[in-house]
Amino acid sequence: MTNRGFTINERGQLNRFAIEPKVYVEENLHIGFTEYAEKLNGRLAMIGFISYIVLEVFTGHSLIGWLTSF
């Protein structure tokens, strides 16, 4: 018997803990080149490329020139 997120056991005692979610095992393994991995890699590459351009604009040097100026 379920009541507002709590359960009552067979002895009529209220369980004050949250109901545990249903556990399932996914049959398909996602390894290698998945759509999620490709999107994540593409987004990270775009962030890195834009960061490189911003670095060049603000410093006026390329990455190698900026690193050797210290």
Plain-language structure description:
The chain is mostly helical. The protein has one domain (2-68). The protein is 44% helix and 10% strand. The chain has two helices and three strands. The chain has helices at residues 35-59, 63-68, and strands at 2-3, 6-8, 14-15. The protein has a three-stranded antiparallel β-sheet, with no helix packed on it. A hairpin with a 5-residue loop joins strand 2 (6-8) and strand 3 (14-15). The model has no long low-confidence stretch (mean pLDDT 79).
Describe this structure in a few short sentences.
Helices cover 44% and strands 10% of the residues.
- Gross morphology is elongated
Strand % is 5-15%
Q: Return residue spans where pLDDT drops below 50 for at least 5 consecutive residues.
A: none
Q: Could you spell the SSE succession in H and E letters?
A: EEEHH
The radius of gyration is 27 Å
Distance between the termini: 69 Å
Strand order across the biggest sheet?
1-2-3
Overall tally of domains: 1
Helix tally? 2
Could you state the oligomeric state of the chains shown? Answer: single chain
Mean pLDDT, nearest integer? 79
The total strand number stands at 3
Approximate helicity band: 40-55%
Structural class: mainly alpha
Largest sheet: 3 strands, antiparallel
